[in-house]
TrEMBL record:
Belongs to the peptidase S1C family. This is S1-C subfamily serine protease. One of its GO terms (biological process) is proteolysis. Keywords: Hydrolase, Membrane, Protease, Transmembrane, Transmembrane helix. Residues 1-52, 229-260 are annotated as: Disordered. The lineage of its organism: Bacteria, Bacillati, Actinomycetota, Actinomycetes, Kitasatosporales. The keyword Amino-acid biosynthesis does not apply. It holds the Pfam family Trypsin_2. InterPro entries: Chloro_Bact_Ser_Proteases (IPR051201), Peptidase_S1_PA (IPR009003), Peptidase_S1_PA_chymotrypsin (IPR043504), Peptidase_S1C (IPR001940). Gene3D superfamilies: Trypsin-like serine proteases. SUPFAM superfamilies: Trypsin-like serine proteases. The chain crosses the membrane at residues 54-74.
Length: 335
């Protein structure tokens, strides 16, 4: 850069070039050897005045040379305490040293995922749930606890709690349960499913076949899939424990019956199996972006659960649907 910046009223050039990156001279005139009055300075010896604009320009030159790390120095000089960041929407759920890793997500979010065992007149079922408050509020699927006469919840450290049903919404396949005498639990962070994109990496945590804390990973395969599920608990737990659902005019895991509801779902290829229902679909920052609710099992009619398995076709209720429904669930809704 050959052009130097100078403030209004700049001095004339001298034979000696002044590097604009040098610090400014001291704001005083050195003492003269003789007490006699000094002559008026000539143009070649007139003191240069460096204003803040010139100093910032010099810093900007250095910043351009060494990269973004110098931005902090510019911030300090200008008094601006805001630095734009491309990751401004991320959270601190996963430590920075493990951001973007499946192991980091699993370690950070695993303690917020529970196993849910529900008993009803029709039998018992195992599903999953997500802790959303430290005193034991848990979100799960309606079909996991529908018609339950008793609910037991096991946390990641092996502690078993009795839970009560607070509210259900069969049209969204959501339910809220609450643990008795619980405190100090690790609540999950609910993210923003509107920001999810096809191809994003995701992690699923749940209790397939009663194997609590099982972690799988994959990507978001599609968005806004119309998934139809049964709202009648008597239709559930078919095909080795899979909840029947309908997609694209086809029924999977059995007959959905005459009472159904349809919602927009996130499709994922993360491995989901019976028992993952109600568990979490998580982004790589550790935020919950969906509640796993439907998965296709390969076993045919009458097969045992050992013949069923994930084929990379799973669906999750977007977390924004969950957050919008929470006030109704907390109020005791039983729709």
């Amino acid at each position: 850069m050959t052009e130097s910046l100078r403030p209004s009223g700049a001095y004339e050039s001298s034979p000696h070039q002044v590097n604009p990156e040098w610090p400014p001279p001291p704001p005083y005139t050195p003492a003269q050897a003789s007490p006699s009055p000094s002559p008026s300075p000539s143009p070649s010896t007139r003191k240069r005045t460096r204003g803040p604009g010139a100093l910032l320009a010099a810093v900007a030159i250095v910043a351009a040379a060494v990269g973004g790390g110098t931005a902090y120095g510019v911030q300090e000089l200008t008094g601006d305490d805001t630095i734009a960041s491309s990751s401004s929407t991320s959270t601190n759920v996963v430590p920075s040293s493990q951001k973007g890793t499946v192991s980091g997500v699993a370690e950070a979010v695993g303690p917020s995922i529970v196993e849910v065992d529900a008993t009803s007149d029709a039998g018992s079922s195992t599903g999953s749930g997500v802790i959303i408050t430290d005193d034991g509020e848990i979100v799960t699927n309606h079909h996991v606890v529908a018609g339950a006469s008793s609910i037991k919840v096991r946390t990641s450290d092996g502690t078993t709690y009795t839970a009560k049903l607070v509210g259900t919404d069969s049209k969204k396949d959501l339910a809220l349960i609450e643990l008795e005498d619980a405190s100090g639990l690790r609540a999950a962070t609910l993210g923003d499913s509107d920001g999810v994109r096809v191809g994003d990496q995701v992690v699923a945590i749940g209790s397939p076949e009663g194997l609590s804390g099982t972690v799988t990973s994959g990507i978001v395969s599609a968005l806004d899939r119309d998934v139809t599920v049964s709202t009648d608990e008597s239709q559930g737990r078919q095909q080795g424990g899979g909840w029947p659902f309908e997609y694209g005019g086809r029924e999977f895991n059995g007959d959905t019956g005459g009472s159904t509801t349809t919602y927009k779902a996130i499709q994922t290829d993360a491995s989901l199996n019976p028992g993952n229902s109600g568990g979490a679909l998580i982004d790589m920052n550790g935020d919950i972006i969906g509640i796993n609710s439907a998965m296709y099992s390969a076993g045919g009619t009458g097969s045992s659960s050992s013949d069923a398995g994930s084929v990379g076709l799973g669906f999750a209720i977007p977390v924004n649907t969950v957050t919008s429904d929470l006030p109704a669930l907390r109020s005791g809704s039983t729709t």
